[in-house]
Amino acid sequence: EFEQHVSARRPDVVLLSLRGPLVRVVTPLFGNGPDRPMLVSGFPGLTIPAEPKAIIYREQVDLIVLHSRREVREFRTNAEALGVPVDFGLATLPFLPDAPAPDLLEDSTQGDLVFAAQAKVPSERDERIRLLGWLVQAARRRPSRRVVVKVRAGRGEAQTHAETFDFAELLADPVVRAELGGTLPANLVVEDGPMSAHLERAAALVTVSSTAVLEAIAAGIPAILIDEFGISPKLINTVFEGSALFGGADDVAAWTARHPAPSWLDDNYFHGREHDDWLAQLEGRIVDRVDQAEPLGDLEERAR
Questions:
Q1: How far apart are the C-alpha atoms of 76 and 211, rounded to whole Å?
Q2: Which tens digits make up the pLDDT trace of 147-200?
Q3: Which residues contact 11 (CB under 8 A, 6 or more apart)?
Q4: Residue 109, Cα to own-chain centre: how many angstroms?
């Protein structure tokens, strides 16, 4: 039914909001004729390091939308090396404002320490328990303030990535509690809900590599990117090299968060919405195709 649907609607543009392997399956269904719609794809979240196979999956699309100057530069290098003639457009991540907000809570004695949990990072059970141990220390260090383990979903809710060792379940396990020193501090809590709501009450954010750190930067909230497990593509944190945000267990326990290096921001997600060019690129390509392929009469008929 897919081909019939596209043929009947005759869209000018189709956004392939699909994972890479499925993009590769779907694109041939559009054919290569002059009436084929413009095909747009992209990536959510952080996509550094730029994987060549991501271009191979999308080699038949017209435009790939990315979210930082660095992403555009590195993926364009991959495409040129592979001989794939695809264009790249720059877009600001939709949850980021035009520029970072001023520092609001840097000197405040109020606010939560919010840990942005991830399903796959770190991956091992003992690593996740170690991480919880640092958060327990942070909670005991400042008993009048909350340490929030912010989970992505409630128990039983579906997530993009399967979570083998759920943080909430680990904290509820008597054996794990014993490893963490027995009775847990009352100010260590597990909560879900929108990250934006948690950041409104946050003095600092802790994570391994969650995009929540970008939300924190945009809100002027200091952060700690935990480097105790290393810095590698597997941990999805190499993009933060040079950001000055990395810290270890002692930093988490002491609530020693920091703000990013200004030199890192412009090349990584905070280029400013006025520099987004994906829509202009798309419109320009549509106009060129229309001028070359369709008589004016056909356009007027379609408009009617």
A1: 23
A2: 999 997 555 554 444 557 899 999 999 999 999 999 999 999 999 999 999 999
A3: 37
A4: 30
The Cα–Cα gap between 218 and 198 comes to: 14
Extended beta strands in the chain, E state: 13-15, 38-42, 63-66, 87-90, 112-116, 147-150, 188-191, 202-207, 223-226, 246-247
pTM metric for this prediction: 0.85
Peptide bond just before 262 cis, omega within 30 deg: no
Cβ–Cβ under 8 Å, residues 60 and 39:
yes
Give me the mean pLDDT over the 83-98 stretch: 90
> How far, in Å, CA of 37 to CA of 104, rounded?
46
What is d(CA 41, CA 24) in angstroms, rounded to the nearest whole number? 11
CB contact set of 57 (below 8 Å; sequence gap of 6+): 20, 21, 23, 24
